[in-house]
Amino acid sequence: MTVQFRSFRNARNYVHDLQLKNEKEWNLFCKSNKKPSDIPSVPRQQYKQEWKGLGDWLGTYTIAPQKRKFRSFKEAKFYVHSLDLKSYHDWLDYCKSNKKPSDIPSVPRQQYKQEWKGFGDWLGTYNIAPQKRKFRSFKESRLFARKLKLNGHLSWVQYYKTHKIPKDIPTAPNRTYKNKGWVGWADWLGTQNKASYQKKFKPFKQARLFARTLKLANSADWFRFIRAKRYDFLPVCPSKTYKDNWISWSDWLSG
After folding, report:
1. Are 51 and 95 found together in one domain?
2. For the chain, what is the largest distance between any 2 Cα atoms, rounded to a whole number of angstroms?
3. Long-range Cβ contact pairs of 12-21 (< 8 A, separation 24 or more)
4. N or C: which end of the chain has fewer CB within 10 A?
5. Dihedral angle over CA of 198, 199, 204, 208, nearest 10
6. 178 in helix, strand or coil?
7. Are the beta carbons of 39 and 6 closer than 8 angstroms?
8. Is residue 1 included in any domain, yes or no?
């Protein structure tokens, strides 16, 4: 018995009401036994004359990238600049948000190969890849960093993420000035704190004696205490610093 299918318009209206998102969901629907018999499983064959693609059929109006008509590079870039995105990651998040117009490509460097000048140009930030930037000398940059009065590496990271710093000051100075003056974060920020390997700790027995007076219960208590107090004469990880004398946390804290 030949099945009499609905007209293309009626069938498409029915499918639009299903709010399916893609071909996978359409195929699952067809296999679920929920599909009316007068709706074809392969609509592009049944409705050859009216067929405009799966996006039109499902109501998503999604078109394969190679078939889309995008705005000109100039128009697209002008639109993107208005979004005030700050980074490549912001752009990716925006593309996933379903707010992006369909005539703006998600991968602009492929669509606009001839005009493409990088994401700084595309987003309007005009950021240059670190390896291509021209930075101030190490001493000039360090002077800038010290004037900020920050107290550590994490403070530096938080600062440059929430404040604008000059483009000729690197956010990763430890990389930019490697073998060009870089000593460490304490030197960069002027905190004068020494790295663990530069500190002079108490001898093992004296340090252990002091640790036992604290009446701490376990290693977790020790780490909380030492990070809060920051005694220069005590190591954060005594098991590593005194590895030749180390016995156990029980011995270290209570004996």
Report:
1. no
2. 97
3. 12/56, 12/57, 12/59, 14/39, 15/39, 15/57, 15/58, 15/59, 16/58, 16/59, 18/58, 19/59, 20/58, 20/60, 21/58, 21/60
4. N
5. -140
6. coil
7. yes
8. no
135/175 Cα distance (integer angstroms):
12
Amino acid (one-letter) located at 156 = W
Check whether residue 52 and residue 76 sit in a common domain: no
Amino acid in position 59: G
Is position 21 within any domain? yes
Residue-wise pLDDT for 184-229, tens only, equals: 888 898 876 544 444 678 899 998 999 899 888 898 888 888 877 6
Domains in the chain, number = 4
N- to C-terminal Cα separation, the chain: 91
- Look up the domain containing 159 and give its range: 133-193
**In the numeric block, which tokens belong to residue 153?**
């590496």
- DSSP string spanning 115-129? T---HHHHHT-----
Low-confidence ranges of the chain (pLDDT < 70): 1, 61-68, 126-133, 192-199, 229-230
